[in-house]
Amino acid sequence: MLQIQNLHANIQDENGVAREILRGIDLNVNAGEIHAIMGPNGSGKSTLAHLLAGQANYEITAGEVLFEGQNLLALEPEMRAAAGVFLAFQYPVEIPGVNNTHFLRTALNSIRKHRYEPPLDAMDFLTLVKTKMQAAGMDEKFLQRAVNEGFSGGEKKRNEVLQMLLLQPKLAILDETDSGLDVDALQAVASGVNSLRDPSRAVVMITHYQRLLDYIKPDIVHILMQGKIVKTGGPELAHEVEKRGYGWLNGATA
Amino acid sequence: MMAELAHHNWLTQHWLEIAAREFCGEADFRRAQLALFLKRGFPTRHEESWKYTDMSALTQASFMPREAPAHTLCAAIQALLTSHVLPAIRLVFIDGVFYADFSDTTQLPLEVTYCALTELPATQLTRVSQQVFQQHDATRYPFALLNAALFSNGFFLHIPAHCKLSVPLHVQFFTTQAQPVFCALRNSIHMDAHAAADILIEHISIGHTVQNTTNDFTSIILADHAQLNHIRLQALAPTASQIANVFVEQGEHSQFNSQFFACGGKLAREDVVINQAARDAVCQLSGLSLTMHDGQHFDHHVTVEHAAAHGTSSMRYKTILDNKSSAVFNGRVHVHPRAQKINASQASHNILLSPSADIYTKPELEIYADDVKCNHGATVGQLDNDALFYLQARGIPADQAKMLLLTAFVEEIFASVREATLAEYVRVAMGYTHAS
Asked: Residue B32 falls within a domain, yes or no?
């Protein structure tokens, strides 16, 4: 489903100096798989997630990314979403003045349009969104609010899960979705992700901690350090990192 | 005076035309105003309040006589009036000429006077033209002086005490001239004690190459406890220009709610002056300006004179600028020494969609009383790129995502229009349909 080959990317700091963040990422994600990418702060995990979703702040200097055989990097963010890529943000953006229901319906109908499906009218949408909200453990009052405005950390993450459940992506990338969550919220997020699990979809979880992986069992675990995947293994790798930290992986190769 | 006039070809011509008409015996008044204008001269960029707005083109302009609008244009206007019919009591002017056939005053209560100046009895007309605002420094508002000398029409509204209009009033000034034409309009609103009304005053062009320059003047007098919801909509062609003055006198406990919307015109200057000389007056002012075209320039000056105690004023103005357009917002709150316990707030928020757009925003507070509450704030920014990316990452196309964010930015201004049908009307005219 997703093939990343030798991906290099720079970001420019405020002085206009380019700094290399990704230094040759290779990653293959097949349909039906759940991957976890772990790594210390500043290793490039979030950069990778944002870059896949289409954030324009990065300069790609080498490599390619194929999504279902298509050059993902050539697509605008909205076309990536339409193709089935979903990024659950680590810091969901607050958008004052934009009503959450209106936003959710506009998003869903934009994606349905790409799938040649008719738009949902307000009533049908409301019925659908209410069932999904239940699944995400979200109160219906959040439909009336502005997008993420004044939401707590947990509420924002639940809103991300709600969007994921509505849009039904093929590839869900979760960027530190577990950070700052209490156990209830963590369980809601995990059950949302697990409900998406099926042979035609894939999930990439980016996380610092093993904790999320107790709720969503990964098939494959990667360790990202200094812009490269330095080790790949099964779920046991996550436990090892939990015990020993990342230090022992310095200089290791995948 | 004629010697000074001789420097201004088009002005001389207009003056001679107006003088020849002997507009209801007001020649002395007009002559006096013209003399004041000539003494003062056209404003130049050396003056602080005209620093960013160059009126020199006007001094060199050569205006032509108005031509009767073509039948096709009249038909277009008629079609517009039937398709966008607002449930309102309507007066229609085309290039300054009143069109009774297009107007509809069937719902007007008998005790209310609401008509074109050219339809007004001579005795009433005296009230209009003589309305000079002694307390304002006339030389500050040169185009108000020019207007007094040159006005050829306008509307008159008088609402007697305790009369509350349930149907909104709608005045439409259409402009259609394909060659440069100058037209001065003088409007007058008098509301007696406890009267209430909603009015939408619209300036709109039919056609994209309209060359009218409109000099518009509106005086509004609100007696004690009168309440006016006043909406101005400027949707001129990108080649038309407008210079407007709105002078408001507020009585005790009167309420003036005013929303200003502008999305057209090449050069549009607006000076609004609200005088609260009586206590407990309230004015709530807001505005939305959209400049989109290269060379388009809007200049909005608003002054609130707090000359009495316990007054309230608020200003909330927003501008969105694109391409090589520019805009000025100058909001001035002047609190006189005896105006204790007033509450004044002022906000100017601006979004630049293009790196070549310019906004000059300047709040001015002049406070000579010691027991007052005043605040002001101004922001200039771009669309939030993180929000834009977030929306796009959910499948919403970039253009639509921008529109969502802009709609969120402007919505509170539309929402401040109290009458729902008028709010919807200006939303559509400004290109923002209601977000569901």
From this structure: no
